[in-house]
Amino acid sequence: MSAVPPRDPNVRCIRVLLADDQALLRSAFRVLVESEPDMTVTGEASDGAAALAVVRERGADVVLMDIRMPGLDGLAATREISADPLLSGVRVVILTTFESDDYVVESLRAGASGFLGKGAEPGELLSAIRLVAAGEALLSPAATRSLITRFLATGERDGAGSPAADLDVLTAREREVLVEVAGGLSNDEIAARLEVSPLTVKTHINRLLTKLAARDRAQLVMTAYETGLVRPRFPG
């Protein structure tokens, strides 16, 4: 086994909480996370109630949350984390079996920042943690299309997003950026498409988050579809 890289005291470690009812998976995740010099495991939990207790006691930047756990499940725990102002800096990545999981839309509404399949490669998991910790949304284009299709097909629009009038506060460029965010594009991809710098895109996204009172990019995606700014393209 290769040695764990030494931690740089000048680099802030991303604190990760592992919430899964399978001890073997938690152990594998811990070994992987602890192998990185910019990450540390702040605790483990086998159900949602324990996850809440640990995150409130020890803190965390990112919670890897299994959606199906005994007692308080991952969905309910995510909802409680998102509703607690003292935990506003905590980001949740839901662990799913399939990108088209039936809980996807409900999880976004509960405050999840993204989704990751349990069969993901180690590098994907580590990238996901860094991405979400940096404030990005972990929503692949495939997952985005799936969740929006399900959302519109079931007509579930109650209290999930910003009213259409809220978009009146956006500039034309901010609307363009919001459309691209809803397509699951990264900052670099949006910058290339709109022919601006990634820093400019980041500035626009920060303004979108403020103006639309959105927690993160995942909520921006939901708002874009719920207000009708973007509509899904169904295969012909």
UniProtKB/TrEMBL annotation:
It comes from the Bacteria. SUPFAM superfamilies: C-terminal effector domain of the bipartite response regulators, CheY-like. Keywords: DNA-binding, Phosphoprotein, Transcription, Transcription regulation. Residues 15-133 form the Response regulatory domain. The modification 4-aspartylphosphate is found at residue 66. The keyword Hydrolase does not apply. Residues 163-228 form the HTH luxR-type domain. InterPro entries: CheY-like_superfamily, NreC/VraR/RcsB-like_REC, Sig_transdc_resp-reg_C-effctor, Sig_transdc_resp-reg_receiver, Tscrpt_reg_LuxR_C, WalR-like. SMART domains: HTH_LUXR, REC. It holds the Pfam family Response_reg. This is Response regulator. The lineage of its organism: Bacteria, Bacillati, Actinomycetota, Actinomycetes, Kitasatosporales.
